Amino acid sequence: MLASRLLWRYTERRRWSFIARGFTEAANINGSAVPNSYSGIESVKRKRVFGIAAHIDAGKTTTSEAILHASGSLRRARMGRVDRGDTALDFLPAERERGITIQSAAATFDWGDHRIFLVDSPGHLDFTFEVERALRVMDAVVVVIDAVAGVQPQTETVWRQADRAELPRLLLVNKMDRDGARLDEVVEEIQAHFGVRAPLVQYPLHGDDGTFLGVFDLITLEVRSGELLPPEICLKSLMVRAQSSRDALVEAVADVDDNVMSLFLEEKPITPEILSESIRKACAQRKLVPVLCAAALKDLGVRELMDGVVGFLPSPSEKEEPLRAQTADGRQLEIENNHEGMFVAQAFKVTHDGHRGRLVHFRAFSGTLDNKKLAIWNCNKQKKERPSKWLHMLADTFTEQERIECGDVFAMVGLRYTETGDTISLDSSKSPILDGMQVPQALCSVSIETDSPSAQRDLDEFLAKRLAEDPSLRLVHDENTGESLLSGVGELHLESICDRARSELKLDLHVSQPRVAYRESVRGESDHVEDYDAQIGMARLTARLRVRVEQLKEPGAANIVQVKGEHWSRAQKEALADGLEAGLARGRILGYRTQGISAVVSAPPGEEEHCSQYAEAALRACCSKAAREAMAAAEPIIVEPMMKVVIDVPEEYQRELMNMLAHPTERRGRVQSSAPLDWRNDATTYVRINATVPLQGMIGWTSKMRSITKGRGTFSMELDGYEQVPTVIRDSLVKGIH
Ligand code: GDP
Ligand code: MG
Description:
Layout: H1 2-13, H2 22-29, H3 40-45, E1 47-54, H4 60-71, H5 93-98, E2 106-111, E3 114-120, H6 128-137, E4 140-146, H7 153-164, E5 169-174, H8 183-194, E6 202-206, E7 212-217, E8 222-223, H9 235-256, H10 258-265, H11 272-284, E9 291-293, H12 302-312, E10 323-326, E11 332-335, E12 344-353, E13 357-366, E14 368-369, E15 376-378, E16 383-385, E17 389-394, E18 397-400, E19 404-405, E20 409-413, E21 423-425, E22 433-434, E23 444-449, H13 453-469, E24 474-477, E25 484-488, H14 491-505, E26 510-511, E27 515-516, E28 519-522, E29 525-536, E30 539-551, E31 560-563, H15 570-584, E32 597-602, H16 616-632, E33 636-650, H17 654-662, E34 670-681, E35 684-694, H18 695-698, H19 701-709, E36 714-724, H20 727-734
Parallel strand pairs: 1-3, 1-4, 4-5, 5-9, 31-32
Antiparallel strand pairs: 2-3, 6-7, 7-8, 10-11, 10-22, 12-13, 12-21, 13-20, 14-19, 15-16, 15-21, 17-18, 17-20, 23-25, 23-26, 23-27, 24-25, 28-33, 29-30, 30-32, 33-35, 33-36, 34-35
Helix pairs in contact: 9-10, 15-16
Bound molecules: guanosine-5'-diphosphate and magnesium ion (MG).
């Protein structure tokens, strides 16, 4: 105790008037959030909108839960635990049972005098659309890494996604309490892997027996989890040990900040204020990623993480780039990120709530909304909407708001037309439209059936809601077989929907094995001239057209259709483009949707002068027929989605898994590389396998790998492209075996 008191006194002297921000205040409020009494720019400056991303099991949910607990915004005494299934953020029963986070929920709470919007995005690879849309609404990401496992396959995926979304980030090395935690190596791994400057801003404190006790702040040189400090921690040796980490921090900051560099070279003092302000700037410009450490499960380092969020991450008004939008008449518009501009918000999610009905979730990017009498303008649908309530949410509880402001993540009740991706505003004359959200392709489908008509009605209603919430989900009724086919991004995506249907509706569902969404394309090229001559009622319709079909370089790309020639009228051109698209829509082998095809229609050479006589109906029919014939002559093929797969497993399973992946008929994968990772876990060497595998070959992989490796392997996969299926698969598809 004495030593720790001495240490406090010591740091007190060295305090350079550091203001202990949010954490002391927040720690005191426990149970009652401080009302956010600021307005205008002061209020926007005190907002942080961030998300947490991680490889599965790194501790994303536990960290979120610990943050909510520490903020005092949960109306219960104990912190929720994933293992007990009582966390606030994973509120769907299916999520609690599986211990994974499926729906991205946003939580709003106050941290000191800051208002925080924590967007929880799913960690699972199958829900990439959820991740994508969560990234769209946040201003920054906290990437959580397991202190033992280090950089894992999914860490790389989320890192790349955050790069693409140009988001500043903090890195939290979690599970510092575990045996084998290896902070320094993990930090090196991060720097090497992602090519970033990632200095530690905290130094971990350990007791004599190696127990993780908390952190020493390398900026203020303060012990942060001070109360727990046992007497044996000696200040002097702590300062000595932490010195090299602090030097590394100062050097990293000096690298990106000339002011700090000159202070450093002149050996002048670099105060905590200067240091933290430089880190804040460099972090926002993505030149530096501050690294923090924690044991979220033990509630250690969590308050310090939140102080880091408030101290280092940018507010909504500090975005480097203004947001770009298009007006209804196609002009470009730049939207300032501040509270004074035009009110602009984008819908990123639609959910259904038992009490409130349809909820549309938004992120406000600019302006202020404070008059409930005004109608909202949906710029995409060009329709007025009259919301009945504006809400902030904490998992599945909501509080009504009187004002919505730049930066807020909020929900509205009572909207009829607004869907995911739509922009809302108050200004129907400018009608700004922000870029929509890219919905990933459906790669996989299952047929789904119930036992009775009444169960079927329940299921239909349930699925209609899920379809409205999740644009990456599709439902098709096959007239021929009477089947309902549900398609989505992947096996787990579909499984999670079916599980939720089972648990919410208490139904027996019959779900088929997942099937891959094959596509058709062509491998060659061909020209076809089609003569069209038909008597329709009293009219005789004729046309003569030439269609050229060839393969696009990228077999996964959408078809490109083109109408050539200056002699067509506008209506004729439209009819021709329609005809081409209709003709190409379905492949010639099995009628799958097509892609990767370029098709050009024109008048046959020398016949241009006849063109003006052709009726549009004749052109449409002729063009469609010509496209089908040309496609049939251009070596039609079936293509399948290929996945880039990264697997981390203990060495002992390497051979077996590689053999499985490369199995010529079952999985058909190509292993590109496999190499030991630098780290060991429980004295086991892990290897990383990189492979390209058809999605068909990855069906059932999650459970297969889990049972082989006894849960000790992890993997990530993403769509790499499309390839022609081998002849055996083509033949079995044609015979209807697959
Ligand atoms: P997520 O998949 O990233 O959301 O990870 P979870 O929060 O669900 O955590 C995965 C597992 O790691 C759970 O069993 C947690 O109890 C455990 N866990 C999370 N944080 C810590 C930590 O700080 N220390 C230890 N020892 N275990 C942790
Ligand atoms: Mg989770």
